[in-house]
Design a protein that fits this description.
- The chain folds into two domains: about 100 residues, NAD(P)-binding Rossmann-like Domain (Rossmann fold), CATH 3.40.50.720; about 120 residues, 2-Layer Sandwich (Dihydrodipicolinate Reductase, domain 2), CATH 3.30.360.
- The strands form two sheets. It has a seven-stranded mixed beta sheet with strand order 12-11-7-10-9-8-13, with helices on one face. Strands 3-2-1-4-5-6 form a six-stranded parallel beta sheet, sandwiched between helices.
- The protein is an alpha/beta fold.
- It has eleven helices and 13 strands.
Length: about 300
């Protein structure tokens, strides 16, 4: 059996994911740890009792010898790297919840750590694995030449916006060269991401429509899906467990992390009013995870 550990229980994801793991015959969450900041001090014990988890650890380091793989859920993405580090250094496969990181320095450090330790690292948005994305992937050959794409998603710019970016990357993959802010209407910002081969993908963040949507215009027609997000968590978990069983992640860590670069480039382009090239991103460009987590905690309270 694959013994899993969950670190940080501050978002809704741990409670939503754990029942799915309980349904899997060869995997279970055997240990949890919460570093605080959002939930009450006794929340980890209550969570473990409610979900039948054996162990609550006082530290992340205490969890390392107990598990075969780890999941880091923190609402504050700026602590994802330090909280994943003990597992990565021990060679324990690690899934980092979305957004995986919020700045280039952490992004490059994750890549360096994987190269050094050979640890499998994956994560990000469950929307990347959505049934609707996979349905479009399945008919890719029928589309013939793709001229452009449009997609949008609800919610805030980064914590939810990363879903929209990973949605189109779930179909097109990595390879974005630049991002340009092309307009704003109320809460909705529209951007154009240009791939290296010239393909333009227009995407809207903070969409006024409540559901994610992806439309691809091709020579053989328009191929579109409105997303129900009904089983995205399960599909991400299945991809993670299959990676653990096979020892191979479905995509490279570098490709997985490109979505963060796109979000950073979108932020830069909106602020500067220029096209932002991913290769030219300033290492100081960032989304502040601490501030987001503080606001998130106030909302939950």
């Amino acid at each position: 059996m694959i013994k899993l550990g969950m670190v940080d229980l501050c978002t809704s994801h741990p409670a939503s994911w754990l029942p799915i793991f309980k349904e899997v015959e060869d995997a279970d969450v055997v240990a949890v740890h919460d570093s605080g900041g959002v939930r009450p001090d006794d929340y980890a014990s209550e969570f473990a009792e409610e979900h039948g988890t054996e162990t609550v650890t006082d530290s992340i380091e205490e969890m390392v010898p107990l598990v075969d793989a780890a999941i880091v859920h923190s609402a504050n993405w700026d602590i994802h790297l330090p909280h994943a580090l003990p597992f990565i250094e021990a060679g324990i496969p690690t899934l980092i919840d979305k957004p995986m990181v919020g700045n280039l320095r952490d992004l490059h450090e994750l890549l360096r750590l994987q190269a050094r330790h050979g640890t499998m690292i994956m994560g990000g948005s469950s929307v990347r694995y959505a049934a609707e994305v996979q349905e479009l992937v399945a008919v890719r050959d029928e589309m013939d030449h793709i001229g452009a794409a449009w997609c949008h998603g609800r919610g805030d710019f980064f914590n939810y916006g990363i879903h929209t970016i990973e949605m189109f990357q779930g179909f097109f993959g990595a390879g974005v060269r630049s991002v340009e802010h092309v307009g704003q209407n109320g809460p909705m910002d529209v951007f154009r991401a240009d791939y290296e081969d010239g393909l333009p993908v227009f995407f809207g963040l903070g969409a006024v429509s409540n559901r994610w949507f992806l439309s691809i215009t091709a020579s053989e027609g328009v191929f579109a899906r409105e997303f129900t997000t009904g089983d995205n968590y399960r599909r991400l978990i299945e991809a993670w467990l299959e990676a653990l069983r096979s020892g191979e992640a479905p995509i490279s860590l570098e490709d997985n992390l490109e979505a963060v670069k796109i979000a950073l480039a979108a932020k830069c382009s909106r602020r500067e009013g220029t096209i932002c090239y991913l290769e030219d991103l300033d290492s100081d460009e960032r989304f502040d995870g601490r501030v987001f987590a503080e606001d998130y905690a106030k909302m939950r309270q």
